[in-house]
Each structure stands twice: as C-alpha cells, then as structure tokens.
Amino acid sequence: MSHARIIVDRDFTIADVSPRLFGSFVEHMGRCVYTGIYEPGHPEADDQGFRKDVMALAKELGATVVRYPGGNFVSGYNWEDGVGPREDRPVRIDGAWHTIETNAFGLHEFVEWARRADMEVMEAINLGTRGVDEARALVEYANHPSGTYWSDLRREHAAAAGTSQEPFGIKLWCLGNELDGPWQIGHKTAEEYGRLAQEAAKAMKLVDPDIELVAVGSSGKQMPTFGTWEQTVLTHTYDEVDYISMHAYYQEHDGDAASFLAEAVNMDGFIDGVVATIDAVKAAGKHTKQIDISFDEWNVWYQQGLDTEDQPDQVAKEWKSHPRLIEDRYSVTDAVVVGTLMHSLLRHGDRVRIANQAQLVNVIAPIRSEENGPAWRQTIFWPFARIAELATGEILRLVVGADQQPTARHGDVDVIDAAATHDAETGALTLFIANRGLEEAADVTLDLRGFTASEVLRAEVLSIPEGGDRHTANDLQSQEAVGLVPLEGVRLGDSGQSTAVTMSLPALSWAVVQVKVA
C-alpha cells in the first residue's frame, strides 16, 4: 500500500479557472471532419449534415473552444476554397496528410457546427504558403459587419445557404502552425516566421482590433530550436500577440509504463521553460503586458512502433478523401496519463489560459465514430469530461507528500499526482487525483487548511475493470468497458464536520472527489 498526504489551503491559490483550458481541435485530417462531425446521410445527421450523436458526445465532453482547420493541414490551405456554393468549391490535394480534400465542409459549416455545439471558434491562418494579405482578408470576411468586399461576400454566401449573415465574431486566431518543424509546408526559421507573424498580426488587428492572437511556439520540447525559437519570435511579436503556443504528445516507449505515467513531469518542465523565456523577453524589451500560453495541441499519440490493424497509418498511402489516420485506441493507462496532463495544465493555470486536446473525433480523439454506424466514448473521454465539468472557481496550490516511484525517464516521482479547485459560490472543493502505481493501491489523506468539509458531493474512479488489464479499452464491440464508477470509502472523519478527507485509490487509477466545504 502506498501513502500520500495532500495539504489543501484556502489561501494558496494559483488563478481563476479559465474556461478555455478545456478546448479541443478539429483538423481536416483523417476522419475528424468527414464521417466524424459531418456525415450527410447518416441516420443521426441533422439538417446541415452534422452528426447529432457526435455533437451530443462533444457537449458531454464539455469542450469550450475548438481550434480549426489545422494543424499541418492549414499550412497549405486556401480558406477561400471552403466558402461559397459547394458545387463551385475546388477539390484539392492536401500534401500534409497525402489526402484529397473535397472542401464540402468549410468555414461557414464549421462556424455553424461550433454554434450548435456551444463552442468558441479558434481559427488558424495559413502562414506556410500564404501571408499578410490573405490573413487580413480572412478576418474581414469573418468579422466585419458589411459594406466591404469580403464582408459582403460572406453575407452573399450566407444568404445563398440560408444561414445568418451576421459576422462570425471570431476572437481567437492562431498565426500559423508548427512552422519551426521541417515537416511543415512553408517551414521557416524563427527570424523568418517572427517577422511574418508580426506583420500579419498588425494587419489583422487593423481590421479588427479586438481579436486575440497566438504566435507559433515550439512544436515540442525536443525540438533543437526550443527556447531560442520562442525568444526570437517573441522579440518580434511581443507587442502584437497575446499568447504563444505549445504542443506536446506523449506515448509509452518499449513497455516503460512507469515513465509514461509520469509524463506530466515533462509537461510541467516544458511549461516552466516557456514561461521563463516569455518573461525574459518581457524584461529585455521593457514590456508591460503579460504574454500567456495557448497549449493548443496536447494528447497521448502513439507515433512509433505502430504496425497493428487497430492503429491506422500516420499518413495516407494513397490519394483519397478522409482515410483512417491515427485512430488510436486508448487504454486505462492512457486515460490515467491524460488525467495527469490535465492536472499539469491546471497547476499552471496562471499562465496557461488556453489548451486544446488534439483532436475531437476519430483522430487521436476522446470520441470515436463509424461511418453509417455508432459513436462512443474512448477511455480518455472521462477525465477530460469530469475536469471540464467540475473545475470551477479558483485553482488551488497543493502540497503533495507521497511515496516515490522510480522511473527511467523522469527519476523518482510522486506515486500520487493531483490538482484541485475551489468554487466559493457553490462551496465545492474538487480534487482530481491519479495513482500512478501499477501494483499497489494508495491511501490518501487530504489535510484541509481554512476549510471544513461537511459532505461528500461526488466520488468517482476510473481503473482497471474486473477481468481486464491496464490495456483494456473501449471499442466498437465493447463501447463501455472502461468508465467512471463510484469510489467507495471516501470519509470525512469521525464527525459530520472535518478538516480531513481520507480515501483509498486502486492501483493505476484516476479519480475525482468533490466535497462541500465552508
């Protein structure tokens, strides 16, 4: 049995919970759009061809903001191809994923989908093959009311489609995607990108001064240019942008589950490094405003060692529309890791103000669907959904004292990983907690400082189901094999009022415990 003690103090707060932390991502890649969110002719399709079963799951997931249309896709995308009458839209090659893009689904369709799904749109512009003029035209098309070429064209297209002619009102804009990466169409040096992003940002804000802009940061901590890229880009763009992006994907290597389960340590360090670089540029440039982080791609993604039928190709092998690409099948282990990655984002909620799990449907996604078939929740759906639902109010700074677990990649780490929020309006104190231990259950005590707990409001746990193992997953045949179940035995102590909460977590588990406090 492992042991942990977590000190929770009312006065030790990090920041308010940003609703934009619970974002998602829809890219024109694989089956995320076509047969994912959009499938005319499906029994569950609505009047616009949107799958109602997928939309219902997206709403249940609780995603608040959704990034679109890429991703690598956007660096070769002409946004004009996806507007206007469908019969007039060109069919294009998408070099990023070696597929055919029909453009049957474009900007108007996505804005309408996001409106029905109650999500804020985060639009990415192409700074790979295009530039300043196309960027400012897209902002004008999307956000200007009327009376100009691009705004009147939007109204004309909307009228022909029978939808609202009002501006889209898109506030969040990404200035390209992963342009530090040699794989990216239009790859640039930091100097080249920094100057282009600065000029695009200036032009876009001349059209709509109220938009918020995200500069491209490093595609991962492992990039050889990490750190110097951010420094150079922000030196050029600091006055024009509001955020810099971060991307990170994690997977288990060579059966090393212990290191995989501790990848939130890597995420913690990655965020701390980017914050340090931002603030160094701020000091050197004598700036007064604060740049924050948009962690607009993160997830578990098995990019190596995939030769099995249930892990489709990373890039299509032949030219066709919406092939199966990276439809990872997520396990109990993956769900626990996703929970801890979300803990890391919360722990850095003072600077990480936007985060987007990549992606929403089918492509490394919490939701899976089949063409002309059902849609279901993957294991990673559950920690995301509960944190998005219950993390409200303020993020608390925890002190965790726990038994240590050795790992090959991260050294000794706490066997328990946690984050917590307190909502003063509702009186709810919510703890999100993972047991990284593969073999042993963990006894956990919450030491409440400045709080008195009176009632357990909710206690749920995701762990290895009976008869399963750490690789058990939800799939087409067993759509509910893994999920959240009641966590029994959460206690407030000997009386109805307590300053301690105790619980026992199964080995390899993620749990949420919410108590009423005063």
Automatic annotation (TrEMBL):
Which SMART domains does the UniProt entry name for this protein? Alpha-L-AF_C (SM00813)
Kindly give the Pfam families that the UniProt entry links to this protein. Answer: Alpha-L-AF_C, ASD1_dom
This entry's Enzyme Commission designation comes to 3.2.1.55
What's the top EC group for this one?
Answer: hydrolase
Q: Which InterPro entries match?
A: Alpha-L-AF_C, ASD1_cat, GH, Glyco_hydro_b
Cite the entry's keywords alphabetically.
Carbohydrate metabolism, Glycosidase, Hydrolase
Example GO molecular function: alpha-L-arabinofuranosidase activity
Has the keyword Hydrolase been applied to this entry? yes
Name the chemical reaction catalysed here.
Hydrolysis of terminal non-reducing alpha-L-arabinofuranoside residues in alpha-L-arabinosides
Q: What's the domain of life for this entry?
A: Bacteria
Q: Where is the Alpha-L-arabinofuranosidase C-terminal domain?
A: 296-509
One Gene Ontology term from the biological process aspect of the record: L-arabinose metabolic process
Q: Which SUPFAM superfamilies match?
A: (Trans)glycosidases, Glycosyl hydrolase domain
- What is annotated about its quaternary structure and interactions? Homohexamer; trimer of dimers.
Question: What does the similarity note say?
Answer: Belongs to the glycosyl hydrolase 51 family.
Quote the protein name from its UniProt record: non-reducing end alpha-L-arabinofuranosidase
- Annotated source species: Nesterenkonia sandarakina
